[in-house]
Amino acid sequence: MIKKFQDLDLNNAYLFAAALEDPETCKLVLEMILGMKIPNVTVHAEHNVLLNSDFRSVRFDIYASDEMQVHYNVEAQNSNHHNLPKRSRYYQAEMDVSSLKPGDDFEDLKPSYIIFICSFDPFEFGRYRYTFEQRCQECDMALGDETKRIFLNTKGKNDSEVPPELIHFLGYMENSTDEYVEAATDESISTLHGKVKTLKQERTMEAGYMTGAELLKEQRAEGKAEGKAEGKAEGKIEGKAEGETEGRAKSVIDLLENLGIVSEELRTKIFAERDLNVLKKWLQLSAKATSVEEFQKKM
Asked: pTM for this structure?
């Protein structure tokens, strides 16, 4: 059943991307995640949520940069496909390629953050936040490429090691309600909640969500139908092949029985064979053999 747009939590990929298209909201969320103040941000149009019928092409990651040309890529992730490390690598490469123009020096590459907000623990160490940067294995020295990949986990347990504001934010991702905000008593969360509630009143956003949800539902239904059709076709093919092997095996047994007594062991071996080419060879051999013993020696 499709959840109402007004009842969505912020961990919903559509609502999250739609909310962070607003520069003020994006800046607020980034500051809670990074634990520091950042300059005003610009959310880049090429990564906006697409409200069109081609739902399969919609991207839900937010790409932004601040006044200091620091780049950010942020995404809410609810399903663990065990590919986030490689996915973050792809996003990093994509971000670098798009930010460096032909003829620019490599030193022109600006600092960047790839951020995944997960409703599962991607590394299973019970932490709310995992921060990665390139370092030398031999002397633990930072490479200095100014890139960081941050994986947040709403199911973290190390409360004493993480700022309360970040814990409240991750809790809000899964429980975007008035009751949670009231209990959290966090000014940043209250501000974020106000912006999310305002967004939920926008008819165009609700229409885009419902259109996308319906299209996704149709695609899933089509996928199930195709799966059933493929299953039936595969079943027919498998059934035909099974019938052929059994038919050839029976023909071999029939010819051998004309030559003498067929042992249970030989009968079982012939019926167990599933390679049609082997059965074809045995069928030709059984037609030429003068005895069961001769067949067994040559099979």
From this structure: 0.69
